[in-house]
Amino acid sequence: MWVKDRLAAYAALTADYLRDRFGRRLREAGTPETLIAPMEYSLLGGGKRLRPALCLAFAELHGLPPGKVLPFAAAFELIHTYSLIHDDLPAMDDDDLRRGRPSCHKAYGEAQAILAGDALLTEAFGVMAETAPAVPEKAVLTALAEAAFAAGSAGMVGGQMLDMDYTGASGVSLAQVAAMQAKKTGALIRAACVCGAILAECAPQDVDRAALYGQSLGAAFQIADDILDVVGDETAIGKPVGSDQAMGKNTFPSLAGLPQSREMALAEADTAVRAVADHDGEAARFLRELARYVVDRVS
Amino acid sequence: MWVKDRLAAYAALTADYLRDRFGRRLREAGTPETLIAPMEYSLLGGGKRLRPALCLAFAELHGLPPGKVLPFAAAFELIHTYSLIHDDLPAMDDDDLRRGRPSCHKAYGEAQAILAGDALLTEAFGVMAETAPAVPEKAVLTALAEAAFAAGSAGMVGGQMLDMDYTGASGVSLAQVAAMQAKKTGALIRAACVCGAILAECAPQDVDRAALYGQSLGAAFQIADDILDVVGDETAIGKPVGSDQAMGKNTFPSLAGLPQSREMALAEADTAVRAVADHDGEAARFLRELARYVVDRVS
């Protein structure tokens, strides 16, 4: 399947960067081995590397080759990985499993997991800053500010806070869940797309289209994820089925039902496809087929 | 006392920024109130605002007015505050008190404390990025990379990891403790100085002098802190005396004794003073007197 191969090719670029250049960076800087171990355990333990792929594809769509943007793209995986480590902590979602293996704090203990997350988040911004001068400083700073906003208190971290607030709460509306998910998962996916476009120094209306693609894909992805938590295969999703319900999470399926959730996911995917309809080439094809692929898993 | 007044004046600038502009920034972005509360509890709960003062003073020393560098300087306080919140967590140093009040997780719970720390760290880089274009993009990116390195896996977070590794361990040498402290406390203090100089676009040798000042002041400060943990006044230091020993921490006093620790602190302060000896003006006077003041507390 072409889109899966293409996603795997982007993922291989990212994984190579993380294992080789980022690993060397950590060691040459004098990072303690007791910190490198939990960082690499979580970072190199698989994953689709979706966010870097989006950043690379949007840069490519606007003429910037992957080599110039790879560190910045990989920084999204550093941020995503830190968020998974912290979300799994006992004080948060208390998940023992992640991608079919013990979560970071189960493997290394809580202190090391907290610090590994802190370190991955911090390194992400260092890596981003070093995208210059291969990419002009102004574009790098604009993209970095966008990434920080998306990952920060009004984005991903704020979304996780709302998720905790809403868990087990009654009277939470579908609109509230949608807004929470737009922060928790959507903001970083959107930023990966937007930053690819910004780093390629494309026109403002193209940055807007990248944003529209990203937020629609993010919503489609999250609704599909919620659906898979109800009807999915434990081996495929790497965690127990029904864990959202067991934790009292308010999700799209729990509030709108499965059929309507599927409709919403399909509508979001359509919007994403339309946002990049005007482009030719392999990056555009990838982005369109990816949006279809995300919802094909649940339709 | 002139140096205390001057430090208080810098601290007031920083506190105003954090309370007004940063607070407004959080609210306008749509940060959940449940996240703003623990962020502001820790951020606005006092503190000397030492790191921002160093950044402001080094910028001023090289001709850049505080107004242009204040957001970047305040970002060091965001990073410092996040590190205190995470260090106090039960899985880490398990401190119930901070600056004479309940620590963040005692006041808000662990999940909110972890997320407040994550958010403060992330926002710090967003704030730094927005120092441009008042300061040229290239200088901002160079300074941001410096700050990320200092706060990251080979700097502050790595130092905290080593501190945990060494706590209760036997056979830890004075050189190991010094290297650990240089990462845990020294790196961010050094970076605050270096970034002030970089943002003012001063000559490379002046950046080197800022680094020398910062690392010497950081060492003097940390040794003095260790000494105060043994002989200090609980009200003044805001936590119980003897807590290092109670936790089995290897410190300068525990490994070298009090008299030799005092000698080392004085020698570091002398180095710091010499690093800025060639400059005139109030910023230079502040930096020299600050180095003396840090060790006056223990001599």
TrEMBL record, chains A, B:
Please list the cofactors this protein needs: Mg(2+)
Q: What is this protein called?
A: Polyprenyl synthetase family protein
Taxonomically, the superkingdom here is: Bacteria
Q: Which GO terms describe its molecular function?
A: metal ion binding; prenyltransferase activity
One cellular component term from this protein's GO annotations in UniProt: cytoplasm
The reply on keyword Transferase is yes
Give the GO biological process terms. terpenoid biosynthetic process
| Keywords attached to this entry | Isoprene biosynthesis, Magnesium, Metal-binding, Transferase
In the record, the note on similarity to other proteins reads: Belongs to the FPP/GGPP synthase family.
